[in-house]
Amino acid sequence: MDKYIVVDIESTGVKLSEDEIIEIGAVYIEEGVLKDKFNMLIKPTTPISQNITNITGITNEMVRYSYSIDIVLPKFIEFTRNCPLVGHNINIFDYRLLKIHANRLKLAFNHELVDTLVISRKVLDMLPSRKLGDLCEFYKIRLVNAHRAYDDAYATYELFVKLKQEFGATNPELFIPQKIEFKPPKIEPITLKQVAYLESLCKKYNILPEKDIATMSKSEGSRNIDKIISQYGR
Fold first, then answer.
1. Running along the chain, 234 residues long, what does each successive block of 10 average in pLDDT?
2. Distance between CA 29 and CA 86 in Å, rounded?
3. Nearest Cα to Cα of residue 88 among 123, 52, 125, 131
4. Fewer C-beta neighbours within 10 Å, C or N terminus of the chain?
5. CATH 3.30.420.10 domain position(s) in the chain
6. Into which CATH architecture does domain 3-175 fall?
7. What is the pLDDT of residues 127-162, one digit of tens each?
8. Quick one: how far is CA 141 from the chain centroid?
9. Which of 231, 198, 232, 234 is nearest to 214 (CA)?
10. Are the C-beta atoms of residues 93 and 67 closer than 8 Å to each other?
11. Could you give the dihedral angle defined by the CA atoms of residues 8, 32, 76 and 56, in that order, rounded to the nearest 10 degrees?
12. CB under 8 Å to 18, separation ≥6 — which residues?
């Protein structure tokens, strides 16, 4: 690959159908040289949980004045220049969540991928873990702020270079960008029955919903109803 993008995202969770992107970090590589970078926080429609803050260091205050996904994602898509995307676990998570959000915004987002996690599992099966942090430690790659999108993307770039230097000649097929088949799941809107029930629960217990109830999906409505019932009862 003469040109490619290495990308990482941070999100409000790992449920593809429900969770939101809160940070995108990426580097553009051309002829082996870093030519450009992308690093933006994103304000989600729901609050960032304490658990996610503990993992990423990203707080609600940090994204308070950030752009929403409908502003940031088109900028990132332009940044990609239609190049192949490289990432750690990109096949299963990052690409799929990006594609789901692009689909919701009716944006074209179709890229060939190279996954450093897939490569590592093939060629470094002797290691107990192929997590990004553990691989960085193995290759003595400096990872300053783990679970921040840009830092993870840059570390993944360095990891990709190391892997290609060591295994590119013997396993060239692992470094060829591949298409993956992924159809974003259909998002069903919240039902009128759910809206009425959730509004009654919020009123009964004087609860402020995490987002506008009318904009929730059916699964988000169910999750919020279950959460309130588990905490306060019916």
1. 97 91 99 98 94 98 97 98 98 96 93 98 97 98 95 98 98 97 81 92 89 85 88 82
2. 10
3. 131
4. C
5. 3-175
6. 2-Layer Sandwich (3.30)
7. 999 999 999 999 999 999 999 999 999 999 999 999
8. 22
9. 198
10. no
11. 20
12. 217, 219, 220, 223
Largest CA distance in the chain: 66
The total number of residues written for the chain in this structure = 234
Please report where in the chains the tokens 């295994």 appear, as a residue. 167
Chain-centroid distance, C-alpha 33: 25
Reference 158, options 138, 128, 178; nearest CA is 138
One-character DSSP codes across the chain? --EEEEEEEEES-S-TTT--EEEEEEEEEETTEEEEEEEEE---SSPPPHHHHHHH---TTTTTTSPPHHHHHHHHHHHHTT--EEESSIIIIIHHHHHHHHHHTT------EEEHHHHHHHH-TTSS---HHHHHHHTT---SSTT-HHHHHHHHHHHHHHHHHHHTTT-GGGGS-B-----PPP-PBPPHHHHHHHHHHHHHTT---SS-GGG-BHHHHHHHHHHHHHHH--
Can you tell me which residue has the tokens 């609860």?
207
> What are the angstrom distances between the C-alpha of 225 and each of 28, 116, 211, 218?
43, 39, 13, 11
